[in-house]
Structures are given as C-alpha cells and as structure tokens.
C-alpha cells in the first residue's frame, strides 16, 4: 500500500509535471471507484491544475478550486505518461479505474489511476473541499507535523498495541503496515507493546525513529518517477516483507506474525528480547 512517503512523492511529481496544465478530459473506467456524483467528474474539464498535495495517504489534485482526491488503497497506483491514448477506455476492463488527460487526448500527457487484483479498494472523490470527505475529515495529525510533545500526548493512555496505534489513521495519519514495522524496528520496540505505557525513553526513540524512517523514505522517493517508486520503497526496507532473511542490525532471522489478510515482520533480538511473538494463525495450523 502506498504510504506517506510514496504519496508525497506522487504529489511532488504532479506539482512538477501537472501544475499549470489544463484538464482536457477525464475518463472513468470504474464507476465503483468514484465515490461522489456532484460535482460530476466532467466539471474538471477545462480547469487548470493549480496544486497537488496530500492528506495522510490521500492524494489531492487541486484543479482551480475543484479537487480530485484519491486513496490508492492496497494495490492502487498512479501511472504517468507523456502521451495518453485518445481512445476512451472500456469500463470494467483491466486495472484502469480513471484516466486524466492534461492536454489534447492522444497528444498531451496525463495519468492513469490503476488497481491490480480482484479486491478493489481504490477510491476517488471530486469535491470542492477535501475535508467534506469523511475519511479525510477524521484523519489524525500528519506523522511529520507532530512535535515530540504532541506525539507523546497522542499515545498517552492508549490501550491498544503499538502496531495498531501507529497504523490507525484517526490517531496518526500517513503510516501504514510497512513503515510501522520499520519504525518499531529502528526504535527497538515490540509491535505488541501497549502504546500508552511507553516510558519517556521509549517515546523518544519511537518519535526519532518515526521521523528518521519517514523523512529518509521521502528523501529517497521524491524526484523519482512514479514507475520507480515501488521499487525504491522495497529497497529501503529492513524488516518488512523480509521474513526469514537476516536482520541487518543483529543478523537474527526476521520473523512474521500473520493475520487473515496481512502480516507484519520484526526482529526478535532487536525488538522483543529474543522472544518470538505468538503467531496464532500458524499455531492453529500446527495443531
């Protein structure tokens, strides 16, 4: 899933390549991805792109006061092309959800919003105010906008596991499954630690790790072409999606805890005092 660094890099790419251009046409290939009906997507036609930014993991394209807001979900992506096909896409065919022409179709540049796989979660809104979208309005503060004191106040008294708190978008916006694993590994904290019971030293390490991991990923990602961002993300990961490989810090094997539709990775030596965490799904299979 694209997280804060990748979405920031996509917003930067759009600021560099889309701002100042005019939306010539928008093609909707997946009506289920479009979550608003008024204003219609055709209201974007003829509008100049005046800005691009993000709200947590939500990408925002400002078209002279009318916003195209996208959540890429687990398997969505933005694909930029210097020349877009002029032929309107066939609805429901392939991964394409929406196409934006930023010049005469068949001649000018633009981008596709695509989603791989059969489980669809990509969502697109056309709104005058992004905060009218409930999912945006209820986001917590952005992970990179927090001071150390604000970070501590957010976690104070919270009873959920640290992994859950870091990935809860209503708590802190922008961190997903991959970067939460990386942050906890750098901070040397267990994913199962209780978020509200961390002492000041642990909070200091966690806050510093959050900024180190996210800012480092942003620095590596911004300026890369959209096509290279996924590879850039994978190349910078130390424990996430590296089950069975040696931890780059201590050499212990990276372990995994699996759930129904996702998993997280960690290093026992660095994070849990050498003790593997219970993987209930694996335990049931071994019975």
From TrEMBL:
Pfam families: Fapy_DNA_glyco, H2TH, zf-FPG_IleRS. Keywords: DNA damage, DNA repair, DNA-binding, Glycosidase, Hydrolase, Lyase, Metal-binding, Multifunctional enzyme, Zinc, Zinc-finger. Its EC number is 3.2.2.23. Residues 2-107 form the Formamidopyrimidine-DNA glycosylase catalytic domain. Its cofactor is Zn(2+). It catalyses: Hydrolysis of DNA containing ring-opened 7-methylguanine residues, releasing 2,6-diamino-4-hydroxy-5-(N-methyl)formamidopyrimidine. The keyword Metal-binding applies. One of its GO terms (biological process) is base-excision repair. PROSITE patterns: FPG_CAT, ZF_FPG_2. Transmembrane segments: none annotated. Residues 238-272 form the FPG-type domain. Gene3D superfamilies: 1.10.8.50, MutM-like, N-terminal (3.20.190.10). It is an enzyme of class 3 (hydrolase). GO terms for molecular function: 8-oxo-7,8-dihydroguanine DNA N-glycosylase activity; damaged DNA binding; DNA-(apurinic or apyrimidinic site) endonuclease activity; lyase activity; zinc ion binding. Belongs to the FPG family. This is Formamidopyrimidine-DNA glycosylase. It comes from Actinokineospora spheciospongiae.
